[in-house]
Amino acid sequence: MFSRRIALFFSAAALMLASGFTMAETPPEALIKQVSTEVLDSLKADKSIKAGDVQKIIALVDAKVMPHVDFQRMTSSAVGRYWRQATPEQQKRLQDEFKILLVRTYSGALSQVKDQTVQLKPSRPSSDPNEVVVKTEIRGQGDPIQLDYRLEKTGDAWKIYDVNVLGVWLVENYRNTFAQEIGANGIDGLIAKMAERNKAAAARS
Predict the structure, then answer these.
(1) Which of 170, 195, 187, 185 is nearest to 83 (CA)?
(2) pLDDT tens digits, one per residue of 104-117
(3) Which residues contact 111 (CB under 8 A, 6 or more apart)?
(4) Where does the pLDDT of residue 74 fall: very low under 50, low under 70, confident under 90, or very high at 90 and above?
(5) Domains in the chain, start-ordered, CATH in brackets?
(6) Using CA atoms in the order 61, 32, 113, 56, what is the torsion angle rounded to 10 degrees?
(7) Are 24 and 68 within 8 A, CB to CB?
(8) What residues contact residue 22 under an 8 Å CB cut-off, 6+ apart?
(9) pTM for the whole thing?
């Protein structure tokens, strides 16, 4: 669905910290709003991305977006109770393959950018000062798209560890899929499944 790809793009855009300020200096709501707008402007102006240069898009996402995601927390949450059963080597493989999967998911959406804008929605205060959910709405052609972000403050930095796209939390969605695969084929089976999917996606690019 086109609107879902657009929504996934904005989840990448909100993660992208291409500006010159640090996360700790800016409230997470203002950070997501400002960075999303800046990223939108830069992507619309990039002729290579607009032309569908997949490798450039992947490099952009990998360099600018992924360093600001708490991948260990995201992966362990997606794997669920099986994470503790995995060996250190399996945990590393799971994290590596999950990262590639997300990079390509985000990258595949970047070329779909048109004239969308991001608007913040009212958020309820959290009882934990180090946890926050930032609610946004993507507006453009068609119906508005809901996008929410879970962020955690670790040290002096805010990091995103989950994204809600059209009412579905990303980690929860993967948790259900991963649990089924692990139940059928074990942790190594999940790793092999993700690696196979990532290789197939690379071959198409």
Answers:
(1) 187
(2) 776 655 556 667 78
(3) 49, 50, 52, 57
(4) very high
(5) 2-204 (3.10.450.710)
(6) -10
(7) no
(8) 156, 157
(9) 0.75
